[in-house]
Amino acid sequence: xxxxxxxxxxxxxxxxxxxxxxxxxxxxxxxxxxxxxxxxxxxxxxxxxxxxxxxxxxxxxxxxxxxxxxxxxxxxxxxxxxxxxxxxxxxxxxxxxxxxxxxxxxxxxxxxxxxxxxxxxxxxxxxxxxxxxxxxxxxxxxxxxxxxxxxxxxxxxxxxxxxxxxxxxxxxxxxxxxxxxxxxxxxxxxxxxxxxxxxxxxxxxxxxxxxxxxxxxxxxxxxxxxxxxxxxxxxxxxxxxxxxxxxxxxxxxxxxxxxxxxxxxxxxxxxxxxxxxxxxxxxxxxxxxxxxxxxxxxxxxxxxxxxxxxxxxxxxxxxxxxxxxxxxxxxxxxxxxxxxxxxxxxxxxxxxxxxxxxxxxxxxxxxxxxxxxxxxxxxxxxxxxxxxxxxxxxxxxxxxxxxxxxxxxxxxxxxxxxxxxxxxxxxxxxxxxxxxxxxxxxxxxxxxx
Length: 449
What we know:
The chain is of the alpha+beta class. Helices cover 50% and strands 18% of the residues.
């Protein structure tokens, strides 16, 4: 029986080649846009979730207000980390300092500029997740003047050689030192809030004095801490006013306030000055997601209206089949099989278009999106579901025709019976207007960011 339905559906598709091509192209383009938007939205909301401890990592911010002026920065004083680590609720703390751009790396005659050079505590690899290709996370930054390189930088400095325990020279605007390479790591994923190329052990620098008030005014470190399991972050927040008062002095601390941000919320919800890298915007993500949903709805409505528009041709087929004994269930299944085949063809075409379009989209958006095999299978299953939903109304519509009016060539649609098709066309036009408006708003958001 299933084979009969499929053969009948394929014959119907072959008979209406132009209609089939239009329907496949329209649905596949809509699916392509929806899949790419879905991948981008998932990419944005999954920032930093690759870290094994992502749900327990927090960043400390510092707010300062004086009169009508106020500002909040993601930077904190160096002594704060030492004080935080003494709290029983905190498992570990790490400080990061961006050395800035145009840092010079040298290995003999090899010399080039590099950016995203960070000073960091050895605890960096306990809190954040890094994949070590050479060396050990436990020992990589334990010694003064030790350094960890990402694999592309190591390859540029040591072509064909093992860089471990070899020495490189790092020159900044105010220092020039030799460092021993103690680890090689893979670059962090694109959806990370920072992408270090070189990580220098902070032990190379003198430890600030926590009792020095002057040190508490020098905001130059990004401070992250790992919360112990089962401990509410509010218990740490409650300690921050005391920590600041002890460090700066109660009178000096007036107008200053420490805050906490969850790691996985920073990319879309934090818009502070001096962020490590530019962040996204949750409003833009929601607008783009709405555009993707609207595009998919327009594609579905277009699929339905194109199918129903052929009612005069399909009516004869329905009349003949009912005369020879076909029941309504049989007709519904035949038309559904046709819709599923068209949607499956659209899904396969959409996946191919996504694979071709992603490199261009990544270069425009600055993302690193990929379509995995599991995501491709999920997209095809979603397409089959879409085909079933989109084909249900035309199937029920066609199968409702009675044979006698068809054979007598009487009007099949009485006044008022085609209202649903008119409603679908109005909805389709309204959604198209919404897509244009949302696209303009999203472009404004992206330009502002």
